[in-house]
Every structure is written in C-alpha cells, then in structure tokens.
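Suppose you are handed a protein chain with no further information: no name, no annotation, nothing but its sequence. What can you learn? This example shows the usual starting point.
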Amino acid sequence: MTALPGLPEHLRTLIVDGHKLHPRSQQMRLGPSEIGNPCARRLAYGLIEAPKAGGFDDPLPSIVGTGMHAQLEELAERANTRLGWPRYLTERRVEIRPGLTGSCDLYDVQEAAVWDWKGPSTNRLRHYRDHGPSAVYRTQAHLYGRGYRRAGFPVKQVGIAFLPRGGWLKDARAWTEPYDDTVVDTALDRIDRILVQLLDLDAEAHPERIRDGWTAGGHQIMPPIPADTTDCFFCSYKALPGTDLAAAPYACPGAGIPAPSNVSEVSASELLNA
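A reasonable first move is to predict its three-dimensional structure. Written in structure tokens, the prediction is:
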C-alpha cells in the first residue's frame, strides 16, 4: 500500500491563514485559560501583549476545539428548549475583575455550577482520569466561578467535562469541586506580583529584560522573570531554532527544546506523555 502524501500546500494555507483571522487567534490580552500557567515569564509576555515569537502555531487543535464548543453550545440550547426553561447559560462573557474577562462555556442554573468543556487526546484523558486536571484548568474553572458570582449568580461547584477528542462518549470523565475563593485570590495575587516586576523592569520599553534581566555597568540590577519549562514545546513565545535573541526581544530560549512551526513527526499527546 502506498503511503498517503501530505496535504497540498494550498489546503494547508487555507487552514493556517483562515485560522489567523479568527477573533480568538487575534486575541492578545491574557485570559482565564492562561492565568494558572506555571511559567511566570509566559504570563509576563501575555500581560504586556507581546507579539508571538513564532513558536508552536499548528492551528488544528484549536480549530477542532472551537468546532466542538460551537456544537455543544447548540446542544445546550436544544436542551433548554426541550426543558422549557433556560437551565443552561452558554458562552456568557464574565468579568473576573476589571480588565480580566472570559467566555465561560456553561453555567447550570439548577445546580449553580460552572462547567468548562475540554477535548483532550486519549492519552491526556487517561492522565486526567488518574490525576485530575492541571493547575491551569483548575484555576480557569474557579476564575469563571468568580466571574459568575460577580455577575450575581450563585456558584456552588466548578467542573470540567473531559470529552475524548478521539474516543467515545462512554469514555468521557468529569471533575468537580466546590468553588473556592482562595484559588482565585492566589492566582490573581501572582499576576499582580508579575505586574509589579514588569513595572520595575520597565518592560514595555525594554521587553528583553523579561528574559535577560536588567544589567547596567556590568551589574545585575534585577533578575529576569523566571521561566517554567513544563510547556515550552507549545509556547508561542518560544524562540525558533536559529533565532538571534539580541534581535528578538520577545523571544524566549525556553528549555532548549526546538519550537516547531507545526507538529508533524510526533503527536502532541505523545510528547506530553513522554
């Protein structure tokens, strides 16, 4: 059997260029899905709305996820029609605090619960089943809970529904826990500390200081904002191989893991579970 060739370039261009025009792809401001990221440097770049450095940019996972969310929103509206009342509020924009907003996937009025849809690979679903959600996902759920509370809704529970991207509904898993103000306050306090560091570094005028620190006269005045290498491979600020960092103030060398323009030789799920 002859192996199938890759996509024709015009089809790949159709996907990549079209995705760049999607409003979510053009969003620069830091959102609830990123606040819990363990890498302070990545958050710092997001807070100053830094241009992407050219790291991971394969749009397909995002395209699949966007399609899944749109379908689930429609199914929730059908459920409301069938029930005869709006039990489920979908894709409502909530404000966690001034300047920090996000679109929450689902709020269950009957249960006073916030839900977030996730479509992980089979490997990642197995990990979440055994270990629970990442700190990023858990923080995101509680941030949406805060947003709904600020909008005047009771929030007793936050939850994440894991729907396998390549599996069956019977394999789906759910994680829930009581809403906790402490989770939100801890995450927002961390963001505020990073904002102070950015001001001290004068990072708007000198973005390279986020990565390199502030040195003058051979003395380090301030250290760089620390990086966590957990998700370097998928970071949009990860420098591409051969990048001249002196000419790219927003690029981060990360953990020395090459940042691809797409993932072709190995799936993202295999890398995450290596």
